[in-house]
Amino acid sequence: MQLDTGQWVVIGVSIVLLGWYIGGYYYNRRQAEKIFAWLREGLTPWGELRAGKRLSGMTTGGRVRVQNAAAPFRRIEATFTLEARENLFFWLFNLLQGKRDELVLEVALRQMRVQEIVAARDGDAELKRVLAAPGKKPFQFGPGPRDFQIARRGAENDDGVQERVKAFLEVYGKAVYRLSLQRNEPQLKVYAKLPFLLPRSARAFFEDLQQLVG
After folding, report:
1. What's the predicted TM-score (pTM) here?
2. Which of 33, 51, 67, 135 lies at a C-alpha separation of 20 to 30 Å from 122?
């Protein structure tokens, strides 16, 4: 049976999508191994690494945690998510929205915070939510390094934490797109784009986080 042009197009597209799926799947596997190795280098000095809960749904990525971390940390949980490289159309759609491989750190500290800070790029949805949230003590709003905005509230004597946040963002501002310090656990949250973070030393990154929280 001779195939017409339309059938050949369908076959060709199917082959391309299948090849893309296989290539994307194996690329994400290698990327996950690379990220796990990076996290292992950075987190091992703070305690024993354990696997975290599986990610929900169709999300590709992983989670590790340090339960009894050395001071000033008490618990560190690192969650990374990968681009949907297996699906060509989803990958292109997310790429156009600026989504990349991402890392979220949630860190419980051994001491309670007296200063609350949210640092994010101007226009960030979470920053808008924080500033709009009702409360007896509203956040004070001001500029930060690069294109960041910083909102803070709490004791006037902040032990230099604002300056440490600014110094941290001067170094990691290309990778980190949101950072928050709060009173409730986890007191420290960091959101970063992994393509800009992985080239840096993982051990230095977590040591700089230690300096950040004082």
Report:
1. 0.87
2. 135
- DSSP class of residue 69? P
Percent of the chain with pLDDT over 90: 46
Peptide bond into 186 cis (omega under 30): yes
Compute the Cα dihedral for 20, 21, 26, 29 and give only its sign.
positive
Q: Where are the alpha helices (DSSP H) in 51-187?
A: 88-96, 125-132, 161-172
Residues contacting residue 214 through CB under 8 Å, at least 6 positions apart:
72, 159, 160, 161, 164
Which is more confidently placed, 71 or 126? 71
Nearest C-alpha neighbor of 176 from the set 163, 162, 158, 189: 189
User: Can you give the C-alpha Rg of the chain in angstroms?
Assistant: 21
**Is the distance from CB of 149 to CB of 120 less than 8 angstroms?**
yes
